[in-house]
Amino acid sequence: MRRRKLAAALAIAIALSAPGCAKQINQQFEDQVTDTIHGLPMIGDQSGLKVHAVRSIREVVIHKIAVMPLIDAPDQIDKTLPAGAAQSVTAMLYAQATVIGGWAVTPQDDVEDAMQQLPPTNLANLDQNAIALGKAIAADGVLYGTVGKYRERVGYDYAAQAPAAVAFTLKFLDEHSGQVVWSAKYAREQKALTQNVFDLPNFIANRGRWVRAHDIADEGVQSALANLYSALTVRPIVQGN
Asked: Can you list the domains of the chain with their CATH numbers?
């Protein structure tokens, strides 16, 4: 019975992923298929996020963090990144870190002023600059990293010639110990449902659309920061202390 339900759900979804059909997805269809896939443990994790935290991360008490500008580190496939890719992901990180609340987030203007006093950041001095930045602005932790891929979709919402793809890495530095206590790697390229039937939850969430690189990056940023926040001991700064 379970296999029949899965086959039916996938058949309907694949049919609706054909050109001209995706726009016809309605709320009733979404609800029906969502109910079906929630009961199927074989649907895998398609988030593209991998995280690692050291055992001592729970001992790290965070009041104030800083988001250091990410740098370009294009992979061997794309070789180059579009202008502003790293700045775009950095802006998402800062916005999401602020939305989460609990910890104080150093204003980006203050971060940029402090970065002006440091050597230009590259792969060789990335960790050293993160430590120096944290000390300069008295942050408990610094979030930093690289962008390896930021490939934009070619085409339209329901007729893409090439899908969007995003990859970035993040590190979180405990300023007090000088140790990287958490790291994350995110890499995701949207696939057609006919190429990856296990991505059905994302197909439903996106209503069968081909999304933009910004959408994929934002999804990765939200997932990564939610994981980081849950791993740390976050205590708001008490005025006067």
From this structure: 46-234 (3.40.50.10610)
When computed from its CA atoms, the radius of gyration of the chain, rounded to whole angstroms, is 20
Q: How far apart are CA 172 and CA 183, in angstroms?
A: 6
> Residue 64 in contact with residue 231, Cβ under 8 Å?
no
Give, to the nearest 10 degrees, the angle between helix 126-137 and helix 108-115: 120
pLDDT in tens, 186-232: 999 875 434 433 344 454 454 456 688 999 999 999 999 999 999 99
- CA distance linking residue 241 with residue 237, whole number of Å: 7
pTM metric for this prediction: 0.74
